[in-house]
Amino acid sequence: MSILASIVAQPKKHLREWDFLIFTLLTALSIGYGQTTVFYVIYFFWWNEFIRIVVRSLFYRHNKSNSDNQLGSKFMFGSLFIMFIYLVFIIVFFGMIANWDNSDITLTNMEILFFKNWFFNVNLLFVLFEHIYINLNEDKTIASFGQFTSNMLVLHISIILGGIIMFFIVKPFPETFSPDNLWTSVLIILPFLLLKIGMQFMLSPKKMKAR
User: Fold this and answer.
1) SS3 state of residue 190
2) Engineering a disulfide at 49: which of 29, 80, 87, 151 sits with its beta carbon 3.0 to 4.6 angstroms away?
3) Cα-to-chain-centroid distance, residue 173
4) To which H or E segment does residue 4 belong?
């Protein structure tokens, strides 16, 4: 059975692959409609990790077999505090300051921020359902708030990568690198797609067991 046929026939065993495929498809559609920016991707990565923390914590707290709820709560609040700092930085820097002289990109970012981008919204809904499904199908919910997950690693690297792209590629050529320009939007988003698939491959359960 081919890899693609296996992904379609056994979706439960290939959630990571489905996650990447749906993210890529919706992002590609968003690019086609001129609604994708660097902020779109980084903000999505932030929501991905935030949803994971919240859903994980809710299942953890309601799991009666867990005796370490207090410890889990400390990890949760610590993680949420860090995520709040990231959120402020992402919105202020990537959403506004980095594109202050480009009204088109700033307007697109504000639409994403206030959930007026349907591609972004559908992507978030899939992430929410995915994390709920993962936690529902675990025999025992284990606190993982303090772990450095693949989502958090992607968020960290994407912030650095996004800063490099904004200041050395997008900002010097604002007329070329705009949401309406299909090919330049693809070039901007491609490094983030490669980062996401690279992290998912490197930190996949099979690769971790092989180590």
Assistant:
1) helix
2) 151
3) 26
4) helix 3-9
> How far, in Å, CA of 41 to CA of 62, rounded?
32
Question: What are the backbone angles phi and psi of residue 59, rounded to the nearest 5°?
Answer: -70, -35
By CB neighbour count within 10 A (0-12 exposed, 13-18 middle, 19+ buried), where does 186 fall? middle
pTM assigned to the model = 0.81
Separation of alpha carbons 115 and 122, rounded Å: 10
Walk along the chain (211 residues) and give the pLDDT tens digit of each residue. Answer: 454 444 444 445 667 777 888 888 998 889 888 888 899 999 999 999 999 888 888 877 766 555 555 555 566 677 888 899 999 999 999 999 888 877 888 899 999 999 999 999 999 999 999 888 888 876 444 444 445 567 788 888 899 988 888 888 877 777 777 777 767 777 888 888 888 877 766 655 554 444 4
Nearest to 121 by CA among 42, 47, 55: 47
Query: Pick from 196, 123, 124: which is nearest to 158 by CA?
Result: 196
